[in-house]
Specification:
heterodimer, A: mainly beta, 54% strand, B: 116 residues, 7-stranded mixed beta sheet, 4-stranded antiparallel beta sheet, 0% helix, globular
């Protein structure tokens, strides 16, 4: 069984500040890990994914995440927040192979202050 | 290339009515997922199909919910009879799942259902 925990439901940062969104996972098998973003009134869009290649994964819009097995974490970061980054962010975990399901965290709403 | 298409985008109905949500996955994808998103419960997987066959429907809330995938390019999620607690945004997602590889899912824009 797999699960993800996203601590807190809301993060607020100033424009230009560091963005850090936390995700911890639990998995009985080596996981695949994902971050999705959801803008208001839209579907989810993949930001980045970890599939056991490099542990530091770079995604779209300047986001990156680092897989840390010892900490069972996959935190999402961006050096400098932009107003357009305001959205809801979901961490997700999946097993590997056929018929694996994505399990999503509760999501974190990111607000960016001018 | 068109993404996942869902219809309708918005649906308002009265309690007791039948509701049918539709999804067209990305051409070539062999897996299709139905999710429900609410403030209280977040994003929940309802059911998923692989090669048009339902693989896991353990997330379907109750018998009022049913899903079909008659062919590779179309799926429906039906609620009969609908209840106010079914009000949510319903997402369809599709992916291509070769054996032994990861499964990036592509989401549709969702159907916002309101049951009065």
């Amino acid at each position: 069984a797999q699960s993800v925990t996203q601590l807190g439901s809301h993060v607020s940062v100033s424009e230009g500040a560091l963005v850090l969104l936390r995700c911890n996972y639990s998995s009985s098998v080596p996981p695949y890990l994902f971050w999705y973003v959801q803008y208001p009134n839209q579907g989810l869009q993949l930001l980045l994914k970890y599939t056991s290649a490099a542990t530091l994964v770079k995604g779209i819009n300047g986001f990156e995440a680092e897989f840390k097995k010892s900490e069972t974490s996959f935190h999402l970061t961006k050096p400098s927040a932009h107003m357009s980054d305001a959205a809801e962010y979901f961490c997700a975990v999946s097993g590997r192979g056929a018929n694996s399901k994505l399990t999503f965290g509760k999501g974190i709403t990111l607000s960016v202050r001018p | 290339d068109a993404g996942v298409i869902q219809s309708p985008r918005h649906e308002v109905t009265e309690m007791g009515q039948e509701v049918t949500l539709r999804c067209k996955p990305i051409s070539g994808h062999n897996s299709l997922f139905w999710y429900r998103q609410t403030m209280m419960r977040g994003l929940e997987l309802l059911i998923y199909f692989n090669n048009n066959v339902p693989i896991d429907d353990s997330g379907m809330p109750e018998d009022r919910f049913s899903a079909k995938m008659p062919n590779a390019s179309f799926s429906t999620l039906k609620i009969q009879p609908s209840e106010p607690r079914d009000s949510a945004v319903y997402f369809c997602a599709s992916s291509f799942e070769p054996l032994g590889d990861y499964n990036e899912q592509f989401f549709g824009p969702g159907t916002r259902l309101t049951v009065l």
